[in-house]
Amino acid sequence: MTPTPAATEDPKRLAEFEARIARGDTIEPKDWMPEKYRRQLIRMMSQHAHSEVVGMLPEGNWITRAPSLRRKMSLLAKVQDEAGHGLYIYCGAETLGVDRHELVSQLLNGTAKYASIFNYPTLTWADIGAIGWLVDGAAIVNQTMLAKASYGPYARAMVRICKEENFHKRQGFEIMSLLSAGTPEQRAMAQDALDRWWWPSLMMFGPHDKDSPNSGELLRWGIKQKGNDELRQRFVNLTVGQAKAINLTIPDPKLRHDAETGNWAFGEIDWDEFWRVVKGDGQCNRERLTARRKAHADGAWVREAAEAHAAKRARLESVA
Ligand SMILES: [Fe+2]
Ligand SMILES: [Fe+2]
Fold first, then answer.
1. 290: CA distance to ligand 2 center in Å?
2. 159 alpha carbon – ligand 2 mean position (Å)
3. Which domain holds residue 112?
4. Confidence of residue 1 (pLDDT cuts 50, 70, 90)
5. Ligand 2 centroid, distance to 240 Cα (angstroms)
6. Each residue's pLDDT tens digit, 234-255
7. 158 within some domain
8. What pTM, to 2 d.p., does this model score?
9. Angle, to 10 degrees, between the axis of helix 152-180 and the axis of helix 136-146?
């Protein structure tokens, strides 16, 4: 029988590690960690970084078409923040001993995943509102939990990132709120954006815990603090009131308040659609990867120039 990676770990060290996690200690880059913990973190952090970077594409599409200078400035700042989040998390992943170039090439050659939500198109300006409100809103629910993750560099990155995500969410909600209170056409545009983005936003929390191969281990090692279903429920509970406040209707006939649990019960997600998009067959999967590959190729001269400059400085310093 081939031993599993966990079974090959020194049981004493593994027990000490798990005791540290149980005590709520933070694991730092130079601490001993099981190989599987390291691998799970690299997978999760790189997927997260890729999502921040690919997430710039659907919104970047609207920077030149923002309806006012103020909106354009906010959107530019938001998209720029997402680039920063990506770079920050790539740095965090590098503390686990992986090279960023390796992670980026996994994204570009299609072997790495990123959040499926970004494989949906942005058809109208209201989509920018819906993304800020719902997609960044869902990200905040996820990332607030990750700020308590057991791995120090990831947790600290999340604290900083969540502050910016709050601004992203607010600018999105403000767009939706103004459109909803605007002309009948603007209102219809806001409702249509909510109709299209609602279900993909719920999918952002991933499959049910019972269908999620990684959930158990991630929870046990404190990489995640709560399961996918609990976080999804928290997001729904938070968002129903916000939709009501701006007079928009969540597109779910099964949505109802459960007095017993205090939760908003909701209908079943279309899991066929979820897996189809995860496996690469969403509306924009190909377009997004093509855009990333082009951006990477177009940026080659910047990387070469930076390397040449670094080499020149090193040469000058060695002479001085
Ligand atoms: Fe972000
Ligand atoms: Fe964001």
1. 22
2. 13
3. 5-283
4. very low
5. 20
6. 999 999 999 999 999 999 999 9
7. yes
8. 0.92
9. 160
